[in-house]
Amino acid sequence: MTELLTEKSIEQTLIHCHNAPHVYIGYSGGIDSHVLLHLCASSSALKAKLIAVYIHHGLQVEAESWARHCQVTAESLGVDFRVLRVNAEAGQGESPEEAARNARYKALKSLMAIDDVLLIAQHREDQLETVLLQLMRGSGLRGLSGMPHSIAFGLGVLLRPLLDVTKQAINHYAQTHALRWVEDPSNSSNVYDRNFLRNELLPLLKQRWPQCDKTVARSAGHCADAQILISEQAQSLFIDMLNEDDQTLCISQLLLCKPSLQAWVVREWFQAHNLKMPAQAFIERLQTEVISARTDSDPILSGQGFCVRRYRDKLYCLKDGLLPRILEGHWPLGTDCIELSSGWRLFCRPSSVGISLEQWQSSVITVKARCGGEKIRLPGRQGSHALKNLFQEVGIPPWEREAMPLVFLDDKLAAVGDLWVSAEFYLEQIDGCIRLFLDNENVVIA
Fold first, then answer.
1. pLDDT tens across 278-318, in order?
2. 244-319, which class in CATH?
3. Residue 2 class from Cβ within 10 Å (0-12 exposed, 13-18 middle, 19+ buried)?
4. Which strands sit side by side in the sheet containing 337-339, from one edge to the other?
5. Which sequence spans correspond to the domains of the chain?
6. Which of 250, 393, 260, 403 minimizes the C-alpha distance to 319?
7. CATH of domain 7-219
């Protein structure tokens, strides 16, 4: 007997919508999202705040007619409607499915204000497909937990009110209410992994295990519970090991953990920086080649758009192209900053301590990269000091040293980035100095 789908079936989930300023529904025009829209539009408490949103990927010729169908349907139900056009072209390392999904969620996030709700029509069979796909990819607990019923999304929250509802119940509701929906022809193409599962494998599985969507969803719940418990422990360790100033991990503390727990802490680190979860092989290489490397070595492990390195007792993760390339150039006369690269700028600001303003204004100012062997005499210290030794003294990682701009006044080294000022140009005088500082919004990874 087919389970009946009514507003009461998803009442507990929709209760979160009652205080939301706006309730958006991801509406593709397909049967699942149409049923969800129809259900929600039947609620007098929700109808006034509902907004159906069609994401126009531009990937199929039917997209325009689907958008018109969705608009007509929403208007017939008395629901506001919007179309969001996105660029779903796959980037490097992205599958077409992943690119479309990323573009879709990015567009939907842009709508969300504080306490807004987004409803997505994924159901129990979608959960089954998701878990099986993650299983085929060798995912861990996080992947095998499937899709959660609710997650923070932009400034609001994303809910999946149909996640415990069967596909049969959705079909029955659509037929009972004589709904008209669109059929995406790409759903019949087994080129896509999810379609292959849906069209070829699931019918066979259901012949043998008719309740497999329910039982796999239950297993996903067990995985989610285990994931929460382990994440809580890993999160606690992660907080203890994290250096807040530069978002690095303490290597000596990591080494006190068993390898399996190290891996969880590293995943928490990646999660905190909104990076894609690394594969198990990458984690293992990170543990053997970087975390367990000699303290005087400088191993580099590159990932997708980032690299992991170590220096002394810290584990760093750096975006590719994050550090500036220093090209020799003159500081434009009368300007308060000079552009370096990768979003970096070197500023000068009025100060009561720093480089003499008189000397700054009367000199030809040049910015150069390090060549090696440079020395500087510092205020309050005897003799000249090699930059190499000063960098080591304050713990500047090697890769940052090479990216540190050197500022020359009339071809004399006056400052090393925003770290040191030469004694020859140093002054302490109210309103008589300028101070340098480097600026970049993305100084740390991600």
1. 888 899 999 999 999 988 888 999 887 788 999 999 999 88
2. mainly alpha
3. exposed
4. 337-339, 345-356, 426-439
5. 7-219, 244-319, 329-439
6. 403
7. 3.40.50.620
